[in-house]
Amino acid sequence: MLALRDRMKTYSGKILIRVPSSLHRDLAEEAFRSGRSINALCLEALIARRALKGYDPWRAIEKIWRENRGVPPDRVAEDVAAALREARRGR
What we know:
5 helices
């Protein structure tokens, strides 16, 4: 059996998808706020999904959990709060 790539000679670059109206509204609002198109937002999401293919975030979380079991919860909360403040400053 021929692979899909071998059977399809050309690709138009167009994909039509149907989404719930609430998602459409959210995308339109985000696109307006960010000055981008809905198409650009969807393309970014697809590229990110492709880049993360095979990535298991739970494995990373479990590794961090194992390495930091002895860290007091208050310290973790302080570190997370500091990281969030730093990330917001970088916007």
